[in-house]
TrEMBL record:
It comes from Flavimaribacter sediminis. Homodimer. One of its GO terms (cellular component) is cytoplasm. Its main location: cytoplasm. Molecular chaperone. Has ATPase activity. The gene is htpG. GO terms for molecular function: ATP binding; ATP hydrolysis activity; ATP-dependent protein folding chaperone; unfolded protein binding. This is Chaperone protein HtpG. It comes from the Bacteria. Residues 330-545 are annotated as: B. SMART domains: HATPase_c.
Length: 626
């Protein structure tokens, strides 16, 4: 006898144990979803085998018709769900039915944990929304038996558990490949032994399944792939269920894009944009989740060639008859026909998104908050689509509280304004109060507030919109004089101040030395005494910070230009002191130079250049003032 031939008993992974406690103990209205979950698994198993059979036809020999059979036994109080899909061997069972594989289940546990912390109790009702895969069987059963045989293998196995911490695996008999799940129904779940109930549940949740789901001779579902049906025949409810199934998601689709394209390469796409951010949206793999089918046969998810990574929030299916079935997944990715599909899909999605942006601006704000940061990656990666992507981009700005488009911005530009001004930083609330904005605000010139990390990067690639260059207000000179804005009272006095400020500038320059690239009088400040900016052609402060954080920039960074506000009362007093005969020995002036520099750094979210010296100087200056 082989090592695995006898009955073995195992404990569930800790998380599974915890989940099972919750599942088994919960008496809630949505228990019927157990059937959705088990039928969904059966359908996935058929899909997987159909793919494997392309290159290994012997796996399906004798039985090419995939199906899922449900049978009820009122006497024995069992429900059986049987499929002739790929099946599982001993190791598969051990790996999958004792651990938590699915993202949804992990997410469910996480929400429970959060609930625990927030209000001391968990929201168990969410279980229906999430579904917990296979384990939901224990909501209605006090024992679950799984008899399964993997396609191409001879041995069959019985997995069995009462959901109380342990499960067993032992050799079994099964005359063909596939899996049979038998649920021993709990006393309080007898309703599920009625045919009408089962019929209704399948129709509600599993109508979209592409294989026949049968109860005796009767097929309960539509049994044709949902994407092959006419768009107008599909109800919102059916879309929602299919989306949940295909995306393993729990929210509702925000937008559905379903169409058939006939041409050099023909295909059908049924794509969904989620209404909330999927969990892995910002993971470094940037994986796609649209499933590729060739003539109804599931080939692969995460086909890098199918859609650009900046559309990785899309879920759904693309099915083409024109791709070759019998080439490998890897080769498929470089197929020129796939590239054609990709171009077509990308444009279609952009068109639909734009329509929505125009027709439903409020809804669009939510979409943009969810996925804008991802879409903007497209500005870097898809040069040919840049203009079309810019059209759907939205920004917060110094004008109003909502999102603005670039067209809005350009339409509001002031007379004499040549550039689209922006400020980038990590924290939207902080940059909205940045000193750099003062002069712009005073003149009523709108500035875009960019706080997604990706903003700094696409700004390196996109130089203009409709002929108007983008200009960072934290870099280079700010010549606001040429722009006709709302008149400010300070504007006229500037010349008088200019003369007396020169000696102060010289003194600060002398004192700070190489710490700054230059010191100059500012045109952008109205309230704050100082700010730091990057020289034209140098790297923007925020970009430098981002690169450093990601280890892509070493060293101390580039020296900045210190701008001082000639109209500020304190600056004027300092300018007076700098004009005195013994200014060279004025220690307060020297300390002030450093303190001004540090103050500008702090306003940028940095720490003082030398925190200890900063403390000493601050104390000295305060002391002399008291
Ligand atoms: N009928 C079945 N035939 C073959 N394998 C199955 C079957 N049912 C479950 N499995 C295996 O058990 C695993 C766990 O199933 P479970 O429903 O808990 O999560 P999942 O289906 O993987 O999750 P998700 O739906 O998020 O992909 C499946 O991934 C699959 O490998």
């Amino acid at each position: 006898m082989s090592e695995t031939a006898a009955k073995e008993t195992y404990s569930f992974q800790t998380e599974v144990g915890r989940l099972l406690d919750i599942v088994a103990g919960s008496l809630y209205s949505n228990r019927e979803i157990f059937l959705r979950e088990l039928v969904s698994n059966a359908s996935d198993a058929c899909d997987r085998l159909r793919y494997l059979a392309i290159t290994a036809p012997s796996l399906v020999e004798g039985d090419q018709q995939f199906r899922i059979d449900i049978s009820l036994d009122a006497k024995a109080k069992t429900i059986t769900i049987r499929d002739n899909g790929v099946g599982m061997n001993h190791d598969d069972l051990l790996e999958t039915l004792g651990t938590i594989a699915r993202s949804g289940t992990a997410a469910y546990l996480e929400t429970l944990d959060k609930g625990d912390k927030k209000n001391g109790k968990s929201d168990l009702s969410l279980i229906g929304q999430f579904g917990v895969g296979f384990y939901s069987a224990f909501m209605v059963s006090d024992r679950v038996d799984v008899v399964t045989r993997k396609a191409g293998e001879q041995e069959a196995w019985l997995w069995s558990s009462d959901g109380k911490g342990e499960f067993s695996i032992e050799p079994a008999e099964r005359d063909e490949r596939g899996t049979t799940v038998t649920l021993h129904i709990k006393k309080d779940a007898k309703e599920f032994l009625e045919e009408t109930r089962i019929r209704h549940i399948i129709k509600t949740y599993s109508d979209h399944i592409g294989f026949p789901v049968k109860l005796g001779d009767e097929t309960l579902n539509e049994a044709s792939a949902i994407w092959t049906r006419q768009p107008k025949e599909i109800t919102e409810e059916q879309h929602r269920e299919f989306y949940h199934h295909i995306a393993h998601a729990f929210d509702d689709p925000w937008m559905t894009i379903h169409n058939r394209v006939e041409g050099v390469v023909s295909y059908i796409n049924l794509l969904y944009i989620p209404s909330t951010q999927p969990f892995d949206l910002f993971e470094p793999e940037r994986k796609g989740h649209v499933k590729l089918y060739v003539n109804r046969v599931f080939i692969t998810e995460d086909t890098s060639g199918l859609l650009p990574t900046w559309l990785r929030f899309l879920r759904g299916v693309v099915d083409s008859e024109d791709l070759t079935l019998n080439i490998s997944r890897e080769m498929l990715q470089t197929d020129p026909k796939l590239a054609k599909i990709r171009t077509g899909l990308t444009k279609k999605v952009l068109t639909e998104i734009k329509k929505k942006a125009e027709k439903k601006p409020d809804e669009y704000e939510t979409f943009w908050s969810n996925f804008g940061a991802v879409v903007k990656e497209g500005l870097i990666e898809d040069a040919t689509l840049r203009d079309r992507i810019l059209e759907i981009c939205r920004f917060t700005s110094t004008q109003g509280s909502g999102q603005v488009s670039l067209a809005d911005y350009v339409g509001r530009m002031k007379e004499g304004q040549e550039a689209i001004y922006y400020i980038a930083g990590e924290d939207a609330a902080k940059i909205a109060h940045s000193p750099h904005l003062e002069g712009f605000k005073a003149k009523g010139i709108e500035v875009l507030l960019l706080s997604d990390p990706v903003d700094e990067f696409w700004m390196q690639h996109v130089t203009e919109y409709e002929g108007k260059p983008f200009k960072s207000i934290t870099r280079g000179a700010a010549d606001l004089d040429a722009i006709k804005g709302e008149e400010t009272a300070d504007e006229k006095k500037e010349d008088d101040d200019a003369a007396s400020i020169d000696s102060l500038i010289a003194a600060i320059r002398q004192e700070l030395g190489a710490e700054v690239k230059d010191v100059r009088s500012s045109k952008r400040l109205t309230e704050s005494p100082v700010c730091l900016i990057a020289d034209e052609g140098d790297m923007d402060v925020n970009l430098e910070r981002l690169l450093k954080r990601h280890g892509r920039l070493q060293g101390g960074g580039m020296p900045r230009i210190l701008e001082i506000n000639p109209g500020h009362a304190m600056v004027k007093k300092l300018a007076n002191r700098a004009g005195q005969a013994d200014a060279e020995n004025d220690s307060l002036l020297k300390d002030a130079a450093h303190l001004l520099f540090d103050q500008a750094r702090i306003a940028d979210g940095e720490s003082p250049a030398d925190p200890v010296e900063f403390g000493r100087r601050l104390t000295a200056v305060m002391e002399s003032a008291l």
